[in-house]
Write a structure and sequence with these properties.
The complex is a heterodimer of chains A (about 500) and B (about 400). With about 500 residues, chain A is α/β, with parallel strands linked by helices. Chain A is about 35% helix and about 15% strand. In chain A, strands 1-3-2-4-6-5-10-11-9-7-8 form an 11-stranded mixed β-sheet, with helices on both faces. In chain A, helix 11 crosses helix 13. The longest helix of chain A has 24 residues. Chain B is built from 14 helices and 9 strands. With about 400 residues, chain B is an alpha+beta fold. The chains are: A alpha/beta (about 500), B alpha+beta (about 400). The interface between A and B is medium-sized, with 26 and 14 residues.
């Protein structure tokens, strides 16, 4: 047991009491990162982290992030620290500025100890497509199971208790799915709540800054730090930042929760079904009203295709600047077309190229109507349906994944019917921009299962209230590979 | 941060279906339709050197306005007038300095030629590198002639991009165009919709500075000739100077004359611009007013020169130069004229004998006797009248 295994607030108290120091915490986090076997790191910033931590000698009592080590996904721009988004096309790229979230964490004196792996350019959900190879699930020492993606390294390192929190990004479910597979609290707040300036764009209409913590309160505290208007991101909201932890612990009596009938029916894993049902009963016992509503199977079936068309279309455009001229390695060539073609041929994996082809195809003049615009219309329909449900209910509760972490090889990026709904429905949160949080539900054969709760726009405070109640039901607060728990369900 | 795409207002332009009235090559008014006005971002400038190409991102992301006209212009002159009209608007609204030579106003021209009676347009050719309005006219007239002669000889016009070579006055092939590029436009999610309130729009219209055409109309109403108004408006700094003196000027036309003739001469001689001219517009108005008050133009010009040379006020200059107001009392002039006639019977005889020069001598005598108090024009007028009575 180490201070790193505690919550942010607990570590803060230890710092205030002089039981540990930022430097000690940082040294230990770096040591754990170096010993990590899950291939979770692009870069371990040992020198920078130790230097910064050494300067942190006056603990700020009212700043819980003071001296807390953390990890950022390697698609956040970090000044003077190589940032590759786990893609060869960005090998050697050293950003000239910090992303806004990195700036905020630096100002709060949190210590970034490393940059974590991701599926190449954050496209993918398996944690297998980064240029450093597969990132593994720390819950499976045999390395046969995925941790999910695209924020694979951040999920693995938070679950392995290297740090108490790690930044990720979420375009389809890239924080909330791996959170489920790694037994973590994964938040994707409302679109516009956290500035995305400095986050490498993938599909800006769907991109969110998200993060992993090991308990709900830490998630709420972190949102308070990272939120707020940023003139460098015109989509960031002017809404005032709230004390998001304020309602944690309040009663959930009378809270109205909708479960989606077709999503529940798409779940086949008996352990997940059982624990999910028990958790709903427990919510009811606390006075919550939990009801099953219909979403429409066709609409749910269409999520994946809609997501692929929109996200790939936006991705082709946003990644058009990765051409071997402005960033990353330039392999030369007789003409600028040659330079670009060689850089892109060598720099992108097959999966990325496939997605760019899909995106480009969907945007072609002759295809826009039937592909891109149709996907946009369908997205609007899905959002409309979601908002209709949330006009009658306060939250939507769903299983976050079809089951425990899948085995490698069982799944690829290609479209499959197997878990068409169960594996893709979290993208509703990206289509609608609504706040969505994944929480551990329980463990099956030592592997985590997760649920997801989605709330109304900018009502994160309410979301944390119900999430915290759920956390108490499962008894999995603070779960990590080191801090193993069985849970109540 | 260099992006790989350009943001443009493709789907909801600021304005569409507008027009500008310009003069065609025969001087008749003609409406040129404007399809749309939209904003977009400047991207990147390429510099091609012998052994490498450089990318200049300094202007990347800087907003610009694109104005797309309809294919309704019929001559190089019309096109030139159209661009001049746009330049006048952007300059006088304070949007841009309108300097084509510096790229703050740029223009790509598409041109096609078709036989009389044809309902479809011919193949269009794009011309780049048009860095002055005069070049637009010359390039288009050249291109009309080139395409016409191609068609008359049965050679189809190629879809291509040409550039204007100023030295030879010809357009030169840059590249042949293939199918139009598919730009794959779609909404940029990073820019949230911006709703302009009626209040904002009305305020923008209300606070728009007075534009070229309206200034010109006002100047003409003030008594300026159209040519003088255009000369003053040809440079917004000139117009600003003129406006600065208007409030104090008894005669706007007089002020305009001083600005156009004497001030311009001074600027040219010293190689300076109007905003470097040392006199405040109010001072120029004062000198112009002195002329209105009876001083001759020559006297006022002397005063102006003294003011400029010595940095004194017009009144001080007048005193120093001993300049007196011309007598405008006709009786006094007539009396002096007759006194000179009485004293010079030989000159009268000479005049009657057809020697016109004699009258010049007599006028000179009157002026001499008046010691510069008389206006020569007035003296001349009465001399001509009085001598004929003899």
């Amino acid at each position: 047991m180490s201070y790193l295994d505690l919550s942010i607030r607990e570590i803060h108290e230890a710092l205030v009491n002089g039981e540990t120091t930022p430097l000690e915490l940082t040294k230990e986090a770096v040591a754990r990162a170096k010993a990590n076997k899950e291939n979770a790191f692009e870069t371990i910033c040992e020198k920078e982290a130790l230097e910064f931590a050494s300067s942190l000698t006056e603990v700020e009592k009212d700043n819980v992030f003071y001296g807390i080590p953390y990890i950022a996904k390697d698609n956040f721009s970090t000044k003077d620290i190589e940032t590759t988004a786990s893609s060869n096309i960005l090998k050697g790229y050293v950003p000239l500025f910090d992303a806004t979230v990195i700036t905020k964490l630096k100002a709060a004196k949190a210590v970034m100890i490393g940059k974590s792996t991701l599926d190449e350019l954050a496209m993918g959900g398996t944690g297998t497509t980064g240029h450093l190879g597969t990132t593994y699930n720390p819950y499976d020492p045999e390395h046969k199971r995925m941790v999910g993606g695209s924020s694979c390294g951040s999920a693995a390192s938070t679950a392995a208790s290297i740090v108490p929190f790690a930044l990720g990004s979420d375009t389809g479910d890239s924080v909330r799915k791996p959170a489920s597979l790694a037994g973590l609290v994964g938040l994707k707040p409302t679109w516009g709540r956290i500035s995305r300036f400095g986050l490498f764009p993938f599909a800006p209409s769907l991109d969110h800054v998200g993060y992993f913590t090991r308990n709900v309160e830490d998630s709420a505290l972190l949102l308070g730090l990272l939120s707020g208007r940023d003139d460098k991101d015109s989509t960031s909201s002017f809404k005032p930042v709230e004390k998001y932890e304020e309602k944690i612990g309040e009663s959930i009596e009378g809270v109205r929760i909708a479960c989606i009938k077709e999503i529940d029916e798409s779940i086949t894993d008996p352990a997940l079904l059982k624990k999910y049902k028990v958790s709903i009963d427990a919510l009811r016992k606390q006075g919550a009203i939990v009801e099953s509503v219909e979403f429409g199977k066709d609409l749910l079936d269409s999520i994946y295709a809609t997501y692929i068309v929109i996200s790939c279309a936006e991705a082709t455009s946003n990644n058009a600047n990765l051409d071997g001229i402005k960033f990353g390695p330039n392999y030369g060539g007789k003409t600028y077309q040659d330079v670009m073609m060689t850089a892109r041929t060598k720099g992108f994996s097959e999966l990325i190229k496939r997605r760019f082809v899909i995106g480009s195809f969907a945007l072609m003049r002759e295809n826009q109507d039937v592909l891109f615009l149709r996907a946009q219309k369908n997205r609007a329909k899905i959002v409309e349906k979601t908002n209709e449900i949330l006009s009658k209910y306060d939250f939507v509760l769903t299983p976050a994944a079809p089951g425990v972490a899948p085995l490698f090889g069982a799944k690829s990026d290609k479209l499959s019917d197997e878990y068409l709904i169960a594996d893709n429905h979290l993208a509703i949160g990206n289509f609608s921009g609504l706040p969505s949080i994944t929480l551990p539900l329980g463990l099956e054969d030592g592997l985590p299962l997760g649920i997801n709760i989605m709330g109304r726009a900018f009502e994160e405070k309410e979301l944390f209230k119900v999430a915290s109640a759920f956390e108490n039901i499962t008894g999995l607060k603070g779960l990590s590979v080191i801090n193993k728990k069985e849970g109540n369900l | 941060m260099p992006k790989g795409f350009q943001i443009t207002q493709q789907f909801r332009p600021i304005g569409k279906e507008g027009y500008l009235t310009v003069l065609d090559k025969n001087g008749n008014e003609k409406k040129i339709g404007i399809e749309r006005i939209h904003m977009e971002e400047d991207t990147c400038k390429q510099l091609h050197l012998a052994d490498c190409s450089l990318l200049d991102y300094n202007r990347a992301g800087v907003p610009l306005v694109e104005i797309v006209s309809k294919p309704e212009m019929r001559s190089g002159t019309e096109a030139m007038h159209y661009v001049e009209a746009i330049r006048n608007i952007v300059v006088y609204s304070g949007t841009s300095d309108g300097k084509m030579e510096e790229g703050s106003l740029r223009c790509d021209v598409n041109i096609s030629v078709r036989p009389y009676g044809s309902t479809t347009f011919g193949t269009k050719v794009e011309i780049k590198n048009l860095n002055s309005t005069k070049n637009i006219e010359s390039a288009l007239d050249y291109e009309i002639a080139r395409q016409t002669s191609l068609l008359l000889s049965g050679t189809p016009v190629q879809q291509e991009t040409r550039r204007y070579d100023e030295a030879s006055g010809k357009t030169v092939l840059m590249r042949v165009k293939t199918d139009a590029v598919d730009y794959k436009y779609f909404p940029e999610p990073n820019i949230v919709p911006i709703k302009l309130s009626d209040e904002f729009v009305n305020d923008a219209i209300a606070t728009c500075p007075e534009l070229y055409d309206s200034k010109k109309e006002r100047y003409v109403k003030l008594g300026l000739s159209v040519t003088d108004a255009e000369i003053i408006l040809s440079d917004i700094k000139n117009a600003t100077y003129f406006e600065g003196g208007l409030a104090n000027a008894k005669s706007p036309k007089g002020l305009a004359n001083w600005l156009i003739v004497e001030v311009n001469a001074y600027l040219n001689k010293n190689g300076i611009a109007i905003d470097e001219f040392p006199l405040k517009p109010e001072v120029l108005a004062e000198i112009s007013n002195m002329q209105e008050g009876g001083f001759t133009h020559k006297q006022c010009a002397d005063i102006l020169n003294a003011v400029l040379a010595e940095g004194i006020s017009p009144k001080e200059a007048q005193a120093k130069l001993g300049i007196q107001l011309m007598v405008s009392n006709d009786d006094e002039v007539i009396a002096a004229v007759n006194a000179v006639l009485d004293a010079n019977p030989q000159s009268i005889a000479d005049f009657k004998a057809g020697k016109d020069r004699a009258i010049g001598f007599l006028i000179g005598q009157v002026m001499k006797s008046a010691k510069g108090k008389f206006n020569p024009a007035v003296v001349s007028k009465f001399m001509n009248i009085e001598i004929r009575k003899r």
